Each structure stands twice: as C-alpha cells, then as structure tokens.
C-alpha cells in the first residue's frame, strides 16, 4: 500500500497524487503524538502525600513535636507505599485539579485523532476506495439492503466526540476550585475521569477491529485517478513539448483550451474526461504522442511518498513499538503493512 498511488484531496477537492500508505502515515503520526503525550502524563503523575486539611501539614508537625524533617520523611514514605516516587510540592486540601485537566486533555486529544481518522475512512468509504470490515451476515441498512455503511467508524466518531467534549468539563472543574478547594469537583470528577478512560478504551477497541480488516479497492482508486490525472498531467505535457523544441506559451494556451473543452464534457454533459483524446487528435502534440503513456504513469506523480512511508516506519514507529515489546509479545503480532 505504501506505493499504491491514490488521488490526494485538499479542500476535499482532487489534488496531487499521494499513496494509500502515505495517507495512513498521517493518521499514524497523530497516534504517535498521543502515545508520547500519554507517556509523559503518566510519568509526570505524583502523589499528594501527607499534606493535611489545607496542605500546610500542620497536624503532622504537631504529631512529631515540631520536627519538620520527620514530616517530610512521612510525606515521602506515604508516597512510596502508594507506588509513587514523588509528591506534589504544594497542595491545598487536594492536589490541583489541573492534574485532572492534563489527563483528560491527553485523552481528549486522542479522541480528536480517532475522529479525524474515522472521518477520513467514512469519506473514503463514500468513494468506495476503502471499506471497514463487513461481516457476511451484517446488515448495512434496514431499508436499503445493498448499503455497506461504515458503522464502526461512525461509532468511533460518536464516542470520540463525547471524549473530546469532556475536556471542557475538566477545565471548568479546575477553574472553580475556590481557594484551598470546594467540594463541587467530587461528583463531577468521578464522572469525567471514568468516562474519559472508558471512552478512550472503547474507541481504541473498535478502531483495532477496523484496522485489522480494512479493505482497499485498487481498481476503484485507479479509475478515480484516471478521471483526474489528465488535468494534472497538463504541466508534464507542456514540459515534454518544450524538451522537443515546442514554445511553452503556445503549448500552454493549447492545453488550456483543450482542458476547458474536456472540463465542459465532464461537468455539463456528464461524460468521461477526454482531454487525452483531444491531445492525441491535435497534430501540434505529435512529437510527444509516443511518450504519453510514460507521462501519464501515476507512479511518476507521487514523489517520495513510498520512501517517506518506509523511513517513517523505521525511524518513528519502530522505536515506539519497542517500548511495548514485552506487552506485544503476549498479544497479536503487530504488522505494519502500509
């Protein structure tokens, strides 16, 4: 897939070619950023420790007859017994709810990544270029039995949207913790944190199912390229003519006129793009007619896309997978065929 040319889109309009694999790396890179953010957030977690009712450790200082060193040791020991290396240096009655906001923020960002990828998959399913797994007895639509709706991707988008919305809740909770704390965070915190983790788990489980069974339809992709490539090849045709001694301005004007005529056939009459037929029928382009097949080879329009995929997998993805090698050994083998 890393070398399979496909039509690129900007503004959801046909653009320069890319490859199926290169497009997948755009999704995967977002997930790498999420993994890094999750790892950092986990490593940054500390324990509140023995800080007392308003964070001053006054009661512990009294307990140890004013010995502050013992209070500090107690704070550290309580954290160690709870599985933490460090405690937060200052707290009120609770650790700052900014910590909750950071955690939910990372998970919410993951939700945005999932939503972006699954939205793309839904668009590609509409174009019939890629489909998510579809079971033999699965019903795509209760009213229209021929349909193959991307229901898993839609489910991911639905849950991811809820996950993204939770960030606002966590931000509002942190912002109204008056002075040393108020209790209006408690019930909200229990909902927000648990729903954030459960939602993240849910979308990742569904997404795993999607990615393990994605189906690519090269012939559909090839046909779509064929509809647009004649227009995109205009500049290459001009350059080929110039190499054969043609005048660039004259060639540009001829291609412009022929492109407008072909465009009219497509837009006004619903016909196929016949630009190349018009080029072949114009004696002006006779010097390059033997080169047209090479000029129109889609693989010459994808730049370094395939190499970028290989470099990305080797330099960026593999090191991250190695971080989880012990976990992956006990699960399904991870293959990166993009």
Q: Please indicate the percent range of residues in DSSP E strands (runs of 2 or more).
A: 5-15%
Radius of gyration computed on alpha carbons: 29 Å
CATH architecture of the largest domain: Up-down Bundle
Mean pLDDT: 89
Structural class: mainly alpha
- The N- to C-terminal Cα distance equals 5 Å
- Helix share bin: 55-70%
For the biggest sheet, the summary is: 2 strands, antiparallel
Gross morphology is elongated
Compressed to H and E, one letter per element, the order equals: EEHHHHEHHEHHHHHHH
The parts where pLDDT drops under 50 for at least 5 residues are none
EC number: 4.3.2.2
Family: Belongs to the lyase 1 family. Adenylosuccinate lyase subfamily.
InterPro entries: AdenyloSucc_lyase_C, Fumarate_lyase_CS, Fumarate_lyase_fam, Fumarate_lyase_N, L-Aspartase-like
GO molecular function: (S)-2-(5-amino-1-(5-phospho-D-ribosyl)imidazole-4-carboxamido) succinate lyase (fumarate-forming) activity; N6-(1,2-dicarboxyethyl)AMP AMP-lyase (fumarate-forming) activity
Please characterize this protein's 3D structure:
- It is a single chain.
- The protein is mainly alpha-helical.
- The chain folds into 3 domains: 21-43 and 95-218 and 325-338, Fumarase/aspartase (Central domain) (Fumarase C, Chain A, domain 2, Up-down Bundle); 47-93, no CATH class; 234-295, Ribonucleotide Reductase Protein R1, domain 1.
- Helix content is 62%, strand content 5%.
- It is built from 13 helices and 4 strands.
- A two-stranded antiparallel ribbon has the order 1-2.
- Strand 1 (5-10) and strand 2 form a beta hairpin.
- Helix 1 (20-44) runs antiparallel to helix 4.
- The longest helix has 29 residues, at 98-126.
- The termini are close together.
- 25% of the residues are buried.
- The mean pLDDT is 89.
